[in-house]
Amino acid sequence: MGHGGDVINELTTDHREVEEIFAQIEALPTGDKRRKSLADQATIELVRHSVAEEMYLYPAVRRWVPGGDAIADREIQDHAEAERTMKDLEGCRPDEARFDELMGRLMREIREHVTDEEHNLFPQLRQATTSEDLEQLGEKVRKAKKTAPTRPHPTAPDTPPANKLLAPGAGMVDRIRDALSGRGKTD
Fold this sequence. Notes:
Elements: H1 7-27, H2 34-64, H3 68-90, H4 97-128, H5 131-147, H6 162-181
Helix pairs in contact: 1-2, 1-4, 1-5, 2-3, 2-4, 2-5, 3-4
């Protein structure tokens, strides 16, 4: 979290970190308890990343990219589907068959979303705006990730201004819950 650089560099680095967590999960045998800890780590990173995108990236896409409303709406829909999957995954033990099913679904959803962002959205955004705008967005995204929720909240608002008002409070509650439960800590 907090890698530096413009928004595209920041978010691409996040993508690589989540992919690394996915690779670690895939390398472990089915039922291994470490898979749950890694799934929690992936969820934490994905939720913070998604909230920051919804707060700052997608409004910028709507503003600067031709056809940006439709693009942002599709990206937000992708987030909603992944968030529902993460919420379902949250209640599963790693030795349940459903855990593997949901983890596989989440990986597919995220990998498709990442490919679309990196091959379509990011190049369009880079072309439609200035490097200064991208740097400023990067800083806003980094700040948002620091206070963003760490657990899926599928019914929470995903567009400004409501998401900007509610996300920090939900994030604080999530981080307290995580600290008390040890969630997101490596074993």
